[in-house]
Amino acid sequence: MPDELPATGSTHVSPDAGPLGRRPVEPGHGPVDPDADLREPRQRREWTAHRWVLPTIAVGGMLGASARHGLELAWPVQAGEIPWATFMTNLGGCALIGLLMVYVVELGAGHPLLRPFVGVGVLGGFTTFSTYAVQTTDLTDAREPALALVYLFGTVAGALVAVMLGIFLGRTVLVLLRRAARRSRAGARRGR
Fold it and tell me: Is the pTM of this model over 0.85?
């Protein structure tokens, strides 16, 4: 049995933690509680350790939403038609999220604020499932129920496929880069 179990919430279980077996997680060593009481010094330290995350997400969100808005203006939708700009935005954003997660999680690369900025901010602002829901309703209101169903299920299926393709592409590139690095190291060793 391990000495300590992984952190859950704001506490974790330890065999030497006392009668209830629980003790608080030290700041910076566990999950961040979004409901931190900033009047308490320990919780204030937790906030200051992550103070750039929310502004980073906000800036990324503004950039992503602006890009989506520009695409919607360039590719307007007519009543009773599939809104292709939103459809392509959601699929493209999902593919990029798959690529990003391979880069950040599996490669372990990038600045700590990369995932909040690009993943949550830029791509979160770029993709829009709320507009997709409104546009599905608009298709139904335009007496196009079959088209509404195609758009409703096609977007979800397409988004899932796009994420999987992004992950596949990211992993393929990662494997190719690792092979090239191994060949380069092997060639350097042979050249000695």
Answer: no
